[in-house]
Amino acid sequence: MHCTFVYNIEKLTFQREENQMAQAVAEHGSREQEELLEQALEGFREKPGMLIQALHRAQNLIGYLPPWVLKKVSQVLDVPLSEVYGVVTFYHFFSMKPRGKHVIQVCLGTACYVRGGQEILDRLRKELQVEIGGVTQDGLFSLEVMRCAGACGLAPVMRVDNDVHKRVNPSQVMDILKDYQ
Ligand code: FES
């Protein structure tokens, strides 16, 4: 209920900003990227109910979801650009910015927060010299926050790519990252 409410508010806001978005989508990918994306989205043509799947496909292909990709998804699926933008900004697993080779996501849902999620995040920011939403200078890691990884009983949790690390102690985080070079 709360999520639906937040989503609707965001959707309304983005509808108001649609003109600004239309300007922002002026940039393009390379010709090769655009052709690959076109092919990848062909199976979703005029299927608005497949929006999330199409965005996953696009992100896996391009690495992230810049404005020109959102515009292409909007055109192919015949979904308003404001709706595409609203979905991308609502779900934490979509990113409109380039990401590092590995994506670290620290859970700051209630259970993880009270059991030390913030300390994990602070440790990572300090050790990696990167802010939330940023990428380390060597391009190896992105640092992000997520709402709940669905493993509250094993909090605090952090995810690196598809691996969920449970009951993480802040002192362990750099050892965990040694496996991701
Ligand atoms: S709050 Fe972190 S896994 Fe649920």
Could you explain the architecture of this structure?
The structure is a single chain. The chain has 181 residues and is α+β, with helices and mostly antiparallel strands. It has nine helices and four strands, in the order ααααααβααβββα. A four-stranded mixed β-sheet has the order 2-1-3-4, with helices on one face. α4 (51-62) packs antiparallel against α5 (67-77). The relative contact order is 0.12. Mean pLDDT is 86; it is low at 1-26. Bound molecules: FE2/S2 (inorganic) cluster (FES). FE2/S2 (inorganic) cluster is lined by residues 107, 109-112, 148-152, 155, 157.
Summarize the SSE layout with pairings:
Layout lengths: L1 H15 L1 H7 L6 H11 L9 H12 L4 H11 L3 H10 L11 E6 L2 H5 L2 H12 L12 E6 L11 E3 L2 E3 L7 H5 L4
Parallel strand pairs: 1-2
Antiparallel strand pairs: 1-3, 3-4
Helix pairs in contact: 1-6, 3-4, 3-5, 4-5, 5-6
Bound molecules: FE2/S2 (inorganic) cluster.
